[in-house]
Amino acid sequence: MPDMHTPFTLGRIRLRNRFVIAPMTRARADYDGTPGALAAECYGQRARVGLTVTEGTQPSEDGQGYPATPGIYTDAHLEGWRKVNDAIHARGGYVFFQLMHAGRMSHPDNTPHHRQGVAPFAIAPGERIFSRGGMKDVPVPRALSTVEVRDTIDDYAHAAPRAIEAGADGVEIHGIAYLIH
């Protein structure tokens, strides 16, 4: 069995070791979803691992579920992520983006447009969520129309190349317990 400290080839990249930073929600973005200096510092400090997987990154305004989580759908987001990715690459690390739409696990207080969350069905999860106004019940989401499902797929198709443009070495789509799931 190889040692965790030995290099590893993952597709086209050669990782310095077999350690991976998990995609934990760090909530280091500005409230508009732009990763700032704190995000670059946080990710950069941990870049000596083989691979960093970003926290769930919204492909659209409707995808945000929690406050201070990042997006990749505006030019400001792209520039913020570019600084984060530069900090990771400067320390010899690699980064994969985790694109995630929070779906019904959202609250209007947490989104830039203050709309209710969306889901396949208008069924509340029966959970509480941290919001900018404290802990609140997750409200009943708005059911997506067939056209809106296609729009959400388009949001992901728009977000993935933006992540690569911002310097990501790869992209994954997160589907566990959120909208895609």
Structural class call reads alpha/beta
DSSP strand tally: 10
Number of helices: 3
What is the radius of gyration computed over CA atoms, rounded to a whole number of angstroms? Answer: 17 Å
**CATH class term:** Alpha Beta
Q: Outline the low-pLDDT stretches.
A: none
Helix proportion: 10-25%
Strand content: 15-25%
**Widest beta sheet: strand line-up:** 3-4-5-10
Given the C-alpha coordinates, what overall shape results? elongated
CATH architecture: Alpha-Beta Barrel
Summarize the topology.
Elements: E1 8-10, E2 13-15, E3 20-21, H1 37-45, E4 51-57, H2 75-90, E5 94-99, E6 118-119, E7 128-131, E8 134-137, E9 142-143, H3 146-165, E10 170-173
